[in-house]
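User: Hey, my collaborator sent me this sequence without any context and asked if I could get a structure. I don't really work with proteins. Can you help?
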Amino acid sequence: MKKQLLFLPMMLLLLTGCGGGQEGKTGAEALAVEIRGEYMAMTGYSLQAQVNADYGQRVYDFTLSVTNDGEETAVVIREPEMLSGVTARIHGEEGTLEYDDLSLETGFLDGESLSPVSALPTLMEAARTQYIDRCTLTDGVLEVHCADPEQDSGTGQEVTLWFDAQTHALTGGEISQDGRRVIACQITEFTKT
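Assistant: No problem. I've predicted the 3D structure and written it out in structure-token form, which is a compact way to encode the shape of the chain:
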């Protein structure tokens, strides 16, 4: 019986993320749960962002625009100019890269699937579904840190998101792999649909 009683509070904590149940939540935690609900209910989005990808030995800067209609995500490189117009289309687990005969191969930042092109969809997926480890509200900005609750801090992939506390727009994010920041994004335009 004691194990069952201990299990129930742990399940409530995992389901709600930043804390157990609505009562006792801080303003940041309640806002994070509210924003999560809005992002889960979205049917699509569009955004434009500055993306910095750090491979350790080399660093790339991009300006990307992303649109998602609920079925497909299109990521278009705007800068650097020599790659302007290269488009990645992601549908489920499949993706294609389009632009005449030009190809972009920067490699994966996590050894598996994280690249500059997949960074913004990864941030959006974190906003919708990843476990909320902690959150803070400072000067009108909500910072939400997402991590796997079964891994130690600083291991695996961790995501930090920044939201405008008034509009709930995603304004930036970082992705870390094993404690090292590999992606930093500043979102300059964001629209939910």
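In plain terms: The first helix runs from residue 2 to 16. You can pass these tokens on to your collaborator as they are.
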